[in-house]
Amino acid sequence: REEPDRSWRTPLVIEMRNVPFVEQETVAKYVLRRIRRWVTGIDANGNGQYLAERLVQAFGAARVHALRTNEGWWREHGPPLKSRFEDGRMSIPRDADIAADLRAVRVVNGAPSIPSSRNTAKGEEAAAAGGKVKRHADAAVAMVMSGFALRQGVAAPIDFQSAGRTGLPGEGGVINEDVGFGAVTSELQLQGF
Question: How far apart are the C-alpha atoms of 13 and 69, rounded to whole Å?
Fold first, then answer.
């Protein structure tokens, strides 16, 4: 989220491992319904394609960007995130796995890149699993996509429908209307407002 001083703060991280696609969709929709105004970017490569398609169907392409990243995309959207870290305008949770994910990013041909090899996780989950949990810099990918989404600003204008004229009716606060049983005339009493 962007703070008043234009710095970015990560208020929440939801990480799902070995969670079926339908449950991932349920969690993502729950979150997106509660942050209604904002745009989101979601990884549409590989296994993320299903979730990205379902979220675009549910919320629309103006709100959910299904991102198929490539070298050019990383070259454009990676450096702004790096500069935020360098300027001290980015805060992240203190977590060993998130830090390791960020350290996994390498510059290849002038563009940030995620190596094809996976790293062994270092956090609590890895300790519980005997060090067998592998990570693929997912937190770094999520941060770059969050940065992309923040730069898109708010979603399309909120849908609304006019309630018609809502100002003071008639001259001098007098209402004249036909209600089916003849004309009704009444005077507005606005004392105390």
Answer: 21
Q: Tell me the three-class secondary structure of the chain, residue by residue.
A: CECCCCCEECCCCCCCCCCCHHHHHHHHHHHHHHCCCECEEEECCCCHHHHHHHHHHHHCCCCEEEECCCHHHHHHHHHHHHHHHHCCCEECCCCHHHHHHHHCCEEECCEEECCCCCEECCCHHHHHCCCCCEECCHHHHHHHHHHHHHHHCECCCCCCCCCCCCCCCCHHHEEEEECCCCEEEEECCCCCC
- Amino acid, res. 87: D
Instruction: Tell how strand 64-67 and strand 40-43 pair up.
Output: parallel
Out of 60-64, 171-175, 186-190, the most confident range is 60-64
Q: Per the confidence metrics, is the pTM higher than 0.70? A: no
Q: Which residues contact 171 (CB under 8 A, 6 or more apart)?
A: none
Give the pLDDT of residue 182: 54
